[in-house]
Amino acid sequence: MGADSSKYHTTSKHKALLKMPTLSYDGQADFWVRKYEDFEKAYEDPFYLEVVKKDEEYLFDLKSLRVTAGVEYCVIEDGKVVQEHARKI
Q: Are 43 and 79 in contact (CB under 8 A)?
């Protein structure tokens, strides 16, 4: 489907290492897709609908869920500032 996913989790022990204010939540999920339409299609997949969605409804407070969307740009590559980006929006 052209999508990758990763999860990030922090604990009180991790937060205690930091001297700056921390985020109010303890986890996040990143979804990397070539096209936004691939992301939307994932939510129509039978495995998502039959398995993953039920876990999400049980594990997460979906009413407090927050999302964002964007693109990632490399700004330093091989120790040099990247002047031009191939990706255009």
A: no
Q: How far apart are CA 26 and CA 31, in angstroms?
A: 17
- CA gap 66, 69 in Å, rounded: 11
Quote the CA–CA distance of 73 and 70 in Å, as a whole number: 10
SS percent in the chain: helix, strand, coil, step 5: 35, 20, 45
Helix or strand run (H / E) with residue 49: none
pTM over 0.85? The answer is no
Length of the chain, please?
89
Q: How far is CA 77 from CA 11, 39, 81, 87, in A?
A: 31, 28, 6, 15
CA dist 38 and 54 (Å) reads: 21
Q: What is the pLDDT of residues 11-49, one digit of tens each?
A: 888 888 989 888 777 777 888 888 889 989 999 999 999
89 close to 73: Cβ distance less than 8 angstroms: no
